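Forwarding these from the shared drive since the link keeps breaking.
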Amino acid sequence: MSSKPPAPGPGPVPPRPGRKLGPIVESVGSAHRAWLEPVRDTYLTSGLTLSELSVRVRLSKSKISELLRGTGLYPRWEIILSLSAELNMPQWPLYRLWRHAAFEAHKTREWIDRCSERTTTATASHTVPPLDHRAFRELAEGDYSLYAQVFLDDDQRDSAVSDTFDILWLRWNDALASSDTRRFAWEVLRATVMSRTPHIDGRPEFGAAAFDTVALRVLTDDTARVHQMAESLELFKAMSRLPDNQLDVMVLRRLCGFALDSASALLGVPLATVGSDERHAVHFLESVICPPPETERTPA
């Protein structure tokens, strides 16, 4: 059994000999990227070279380079399992993310099961995340679902939230080492949700949320509901133009009903920042939806 890679030191990782690893290719899908980025980041901070990793996993350097860039054929699970063992990564969340991405890559269920049938038992033997990760999930999962529901349908919402916590499990040490674990986690959630949200001209499309706003739920008159629906759709279209931080604040505050301090805690940003983002967002929305009338010019 080969030894685990040395833990990175307090300083920056020294440059590796040989050619630098290229970036992940643009064609990699969101589900594939969800597990590839943590694997790639772990490799880059491990201190191992491609040559050393090649000997340990018995795969050529070129194939490992392709895998870490997302080029070539979608990799079989046994290869990812070997890499995860050498990089000392938790295998169960990695397997779930790999399996999800395999479907995105149009692999059949038979191919997926055949790739993993000999290794699933070993993979599933370590299914318990760290205690503090479990505690964090218990606190945040319900609130994360409320946010994701604004952008995604029920199945996509549940998948996005589940994948978020799997990614966090893979990157939990990074989350704990960050300036604020809550902020780190929120950025993972947001990236996961937005990768599955339809976009128009680079803006998230979430008009479906109009069917489940608080305003609509309390209205019983059909005419009033239609009027409110039109107003909601106009509001959501304008909200999609907000900067990311302001959009998140408005979704949490106005669509999910979070108090100011609760939104601050969930986002991992100061209370004053949330208040400022909300004020700027409201000012922008009012200027777009209800612009002030033009000043009449006095004839010369």
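-- next protein --
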Amino acid sequence: MTEPNPDAAHPFTRASTSARWRSCGAGLIVGAILVTAGCTTDNDPPAITATSVFTGTPVPLTTGEIPGEPGHSPGGNVVSAGFADPEGAPAGTVTFVERAGFVEIQAHVSGLTPGFHGFHVHENGTCDPDSTAPDGNQTGDFLSAGGHLQADDHTGSPASGDLASIYVRDDGQGLLVTSTDAFTLDDLNNNGRGRAVVVHADPDNFGNIPTRYTLPDHSTVPDQQTQATGDAGPRVACAVVK
């Protein structure tokens, strides 16, 4: 009996393979592997090039195993609160997540005037509309929250509670994602008393007033009021975090 010729068993035979390898620029895609060949002889092995394949699935984010580690899933190291305007209407939310060596902040606001708004953590955990400031000198919305937070052993400007300004779009919505290493969640808890997070009516200039500008009394520029408040104006939304 004549033995079957294995090379004739399939159109893609050993002979046809050799012919393909001798072809210049021949290529074959097998699964996720791109096989390419230049001008080779029957004895030359084919050149194989692995290529990456895009599947549409994003690379997963690293998740920490313990609180305070970057990427750690929420679990005891997150605090959130809702903003309210002076009339008590909802005005968004704010979330603080403690990471390794810093705090990440995400704020969503709504119903505010388009443009930049000062955004700070204030010293007292109260959000009382039409209230008196702790020094007793002024009355206004959310003034009971006091001045900007200064964490222990921190003085000067910018204050610990000074954060990046939040931009509100023409539709009244705003989103801010930022971070700081100037305070911790324990500082926000304030022994259970909490802190106020305040959105202001105007942009915060962060005391950035060039020295070429002078005040009528020739006092230091920026003055104490600017250094303390950033000239961010009235308080238009407030949330208490603990």
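The longest helix spans residues 14-22. The first strand starts at residue 27 and ends at 30.

- D.
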